Every structure is written in structure tokens, then in C-alpha cells.
């Protein structure tokens, strides 16, 4: 596991601040909120490659390393892990910085798999760059 913020051109695919309304009964940010932010970032990443509809089909190797706190700046980074004929596996890391903007720390990571869909909701083929193949 890397302990450095991913060096991705353009920076994170999503950046937000964890707010009190997002807490669980223990006072930490609800894990489901964090997963939702990751899926939103992954969706942005995949939309740029799939050039059309897609769905999240699985989340693998999800690990929560520490809780997110209210006020943390949450940044989500995506990198392509693997591409199949109709799917993209995306490694997604969530990092936080404290309110001063320092002390970055990874709080969770996982691999999300997305499948590209055609107009009828059926899997469609992607080309080698992740874009939809032209139909003839």
C-alpha cells in the first residue's frame, strides 16, 4: 500500500468536505457516504472513457483504514486497473487532509468494476482506449 497521494494529472476526480449531516451514530463519517463519494468519482472517471451509459457491477478489495472526521477535506483518486471487452476495473483511493490542509492520509481504497451499456441496457464492447466501438 502506497503512503503517498496519487500523482494523477488534473488531481483528484472528486473533492469535498465531510459535514456533520454525514455522520453515523458513533460521530464518524458514515462508511456508506464514503463509498458513495468513491462511486461518484469512479463514475466521472469511467464516463470519460466509456463515452456512454455504464453501471457499477462490483466493489472488490474494499478496505477502511481509518474513520473520516467531520471537517476533513476528502479527495478521491481513480486509476485504471484493468479493462475487459465491456468492463473497466478502477482502483479508487480516498484521502483526507485536516482542516489546515496538511497531514494527508489514505482512509480507504477499493477496486470498483463498471460495465458499459448500450441503449437497451445490454453490455457493449469498448475499444482499447475504453471508448465505445463504432457500430456498423
UniProtKB/TrEMBL annotation:
Gene Ontology, cellular component aspect: cytosol
Domain HotDog ACOT-type per the UniProt entry, residue ranges: 8-120
Keywords, comma-separated and alphabetical: Hydrolase
Listed GO MF terms: long-chain fatty acyl-CoA hydrolase activity
Family matches, as SUPFAM superfamilies: Thioesterase/thiol ester dehydrase-isomerase (SSF54637)
Gene3D superfamilies: Hotdog Thioesterase (3.10.129.10)
Endpoints of the signal sequence: none
Lineage top rank: taxon: Bacteria
UniProt-listed Pfam families: 4HBT (PF03061)
One annotated GO biological process: fatty acid catabolic process
Assigned protein family: Belongs to the acyl coenzyme A hydrolase family.
Stated name of the protein: Acyl-CoA thioesterase
Organism: Methylobacterium tardum
Amino acid at each position: 500500500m502506497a503512503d503517498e497521494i496519487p500523482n494523477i494529472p488534473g488531481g483528484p476526480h472528486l473533492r469535498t468536505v465531510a459535514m456533520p449531516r454525514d455522520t453515523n451514530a458513533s460521530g464518524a463519517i458514515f462508511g456508506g457516504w464514503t463509498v458513495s463519494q468513491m462511486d461518484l468519482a469512479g463514475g466521472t472517471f469511467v464516463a470519460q472513457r466509456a463515452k456512454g451509459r455504464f453501471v457499477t457491477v462490483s466493489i472488490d478489495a474494499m478496505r477502511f483504514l481509518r474513520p473520516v472526521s467531520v471537517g476533513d477535506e476528502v479527495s478521491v483518486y481513480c486509476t485504471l486497473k484493468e479493462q475487459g471487452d465491456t468492463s473497466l476495473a478502477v482502483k479508487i483511493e480516498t484521502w483526507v487532509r485536516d482542516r489546515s490542509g496538511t497531514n494527508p492520509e489514505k482512509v480507504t481504497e477499493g477496486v470498483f468494476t463498471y460495465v458499459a451499456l448500450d441503449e437497451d441496457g445490454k453490455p457493449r464492447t469498448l475499444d482499447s482506449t475504453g471508448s465505445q466501438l463504432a457500430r456498423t
